[in-house]
Design a protein that fits this description.
Number of helices: 11
Largest sheet: 7 strands, mixed
Number of domains: 1
Structural class: alpha/beta
Radius of gyration: 17 Å
Bound molecules: S-adenosylmethionine
CATH superfamily: Vaccinia Virus protein VP39
Helix content: 40-55%
Distance between the termini: 29 Å
Length: 247
């Protein structure tokens, strides 16, 4: 059940090989990667140490490598064999953590119920054909917590999402994605025995604008300013969610 919009991009060798540089290259790219990794790790740490983590839609292994240590095993799974190949090649120098990458579909995770301590997933739910099925699977296999992000309905991603969907409808080759209301995520988590423990909103301005600015210091300054005006609480994106098992 691979996404007909996004998956076709990620299975292309050229697209996959450019992903890391395209997204996390340059000063702002490195800043973004560090920011996202730090955010996910801090939310994950709220429930104490973990021994096993599954990164669904791992891409180039951003989160899998970040959480894998000698004591914590990380599984990085992606639907695209090309992305898995990239993840394997991009092992950070000197990284000694226990990490395994493999190909698989987020809609049918090849793991038993409560078989890993936690599941993480960044920039993936928005691309799935059936996001509720994907989220249900993450909740099923996690023993303790699930940390993931989504583009919110409130904020700039909604406009971009709409534009891309329209373009895709007219046959343009673009990565269409969906946006979410926090309320619908909360309800879906409840149906799967989880409670929404924390919501973190990141950037008020679109990432594309920050990328153009090209200065992490300017990004921090501008976002702090907008945050102090209360705009991050309303418009911040993506929305990163920490969900914990209730039963
Ligand atoms: C925007 S990238 C995010 C990659 C990585 N998590 C990150 O944050 O850099 C989306 C990833 O989800 C993967 N993906 C899309 N549909 C999937 C599915 N049904 N099952 C597993 N992975 C999927 C794509 O191949 C791609 O690597």
């Amino acid at each position: 059940m691979f996404n007909h919009y996004s998956y076709e991009f990620y299975r292309e060798p050229e697209f996959a090989s450019e992903y890391e540089l395209d997204r996390f290259g340059g000063r702002f790219g490195r800043f973004l990667k560090n920011y996202e990794v730090a955010l996910f790790k801090s939310l994950l740490a709220e429930d104490g140490p973990v021994q096993s983590v599954l990164d669904v839609g791992t891409g180039t292994g951003k989160l899998a490598y970040a959480v894998a240590t000698r004591d914590t095993v990380a599984f990085g799974m992606d639907a695209s064999p090309e992305m898995v190949r990239q993840a394997l090649q991009l092992r950070p120098e000197g990284h000694e953590g226990r990490v395994a990458f493999f190909v698989g579909d987020a809609h049918v995770l090849p793991f038993g119920d409560r078989s890993v301590d936690a599941v993480v997933s960044s920039r993936v739910l928005m691309h799935l054909v059936d996001w509720q099925k994907g989220l249900a699977e993450m909740c099923r296999v996690a023993r303790r917590s699930v940390v993931f992000d989504v583009p919110p309905l409130r904020g700039f991603p909604a406009l971009e999402s709409l534009a891309r969907r329209v373009l895709a409808r007219f046959g343009a080759k673009t990565q269409a994605y969906r946006v979410f209301r926090v309320g619908q995520i909360r309800r879906s988590l409840q149906q799967n025995g989880y409670r929404l423990a924390r919501v973190e909103r990141s950037f008020v301005l679109p990432i594309a604008v920050h990328r153009k600015l090209g200065s992490p210091r300017l990004t921090v300054f501008v976002e702090r300013l907008l945050g102090s005006l209360g705009l991050r609480r309303i418009l911040g994106a993506p929305v990163t969610i920490h969900a914990v098992r209730e039963d």
